[in-house]
Design brief:
5-stranded antiparallel sheet; about 40% helix; about 300 residues; 10 strands; elongated; alpha+beta; Phosphatase 2c, domain 1
Length: about 300
């Protein structure tokens, strides 16, 4: 509140109408001057606030870009050259950085280790824990590369200590070197992760491989199962994160695991790369432009 005091000098008398109008005008002008002054102060404060916000946004964008560069450096850009195997993969992140990690590790003992880990949530926090997941999975692979169940058990114990507020779903599979007849044994274990899908070439049949095991990083005494199958020439294994089967369309209908099996079955091509492309093309057709809510990793491996 502002206060103006105006006094008529000289003898005491009543104010004339013109003097009262003049005094009222002075008050109006003073009020307008104060409003203009306060507006200028507010505009300057807003300008400074916008400038600070712009600089902070630029800093966040720079950090996100750096995080994205680091995350991309953690993920494979090509597949290893492995005897009797062909590998194709695709990955997509919802945000600039995501929480899905995967790796291909040719073992010094022979064979190939394949790992997929999905950190709960996505964005910068999940990406930071992704770096931790990679380091832990690398250690596990060096110690238990040929023993998937022990790999997953070790990963669970380590993540309980280092990721108390997050959890991970993961799958680790070991492809043995070719046996004398050219077959390959696939041994895998998982924790809370979607089951692999296998295509049996000789029978022209596709099915999901069931394996029990809860999420990693939450339960110290969790139990994990290990499954082993024999793969022959032309057989294929598909590994993926839950972003694929949990994809929804504009009507909020979910793709689902049963439909994913059917989708893969109807997408099979002679070439593995064309098969992977067809799977994602049909998944996008189902989505019909709806927003993708989770990161997606899809890996296809064929015995040749």
């Amino acid at each position: 509140m502002g206060l103006i005091i105006i006094e008529v000098s000289g003898e005491n008398r009543a104010w004339s109408y013109e003097e009262m109008q003049f005094a009222a005008s002075l008050a109006d002008f003073a009020s307008l001057a104060m409003e203009t002054h306060n507006r200028k102060i507010a505009e300057e404060a807003l300008r400074k606030s916008e400038e600070m916000l712009r600089k902070r946004t630029e800093l966040i964008e720079k950090d996100l870009k750096n995080a994205q560069i680091i995350q991309r450096a953690l993920l494979p850009t090509s597949v290893p050259n492995v005897e009797n195997m062909r590998i194709e993969f695709r990955n997509f992140s919802v945000d600039a950085v995501g929480g899905d990690y995967f790796s291909f590790t040719p073992l010094k003992e022979g064979g190939l280790g394949v790992f997929i880990g999905d950190v709960s949530g996505h964005g910068v926090s999940a990406a930071l824990f992704l770096s931790l997941l990679k380091a832990t999975a690398d250690r596990a692979c060096r110690r238990f590369g040929q023993r998937p169940k022990e790999f997953i058990e070790y990963l669970n114990r380590e993540l309980i200590e280092t990721m108390p507020h997050y959890f991970v779903t993961a799958i680790y599979g070991y492809f043995t070197p070719p046996l004398s007849n050219g077959d390959v044994e696939f041994i895998f274990s998982k924790g809370g992760h979607p089951n692999p899908i296998v295509y049996w070439n000789s029978e022209k049949k596709i099915e999901m491989l069931r394996c029990r095991g809860t999420i990693l990083g939450k339960f110290e005494h969790a139990m994990y199962e290990e499954i082993s199958i024999r793969l022959t020439r032309g057989d294929r294994i598909f590994l993926y994160t839950d972003g694929l089967p949990e994809m929804t369309n504009k009507d909020k209908h979910i793709l689902g695991f049963n439909e994913l099996i059917h989708l893969i079955e109807t997408s099979l091509k002679e070439d593995l790369k064309e098969t992977i492309n067809e799977i994602l093309s049909k998944a996008n057709s189902f989505r019909d432009g709806a927003q993708i809510d989770d990161d997606i990793v899809l890996i296809g491996i064929e015995i040749t």
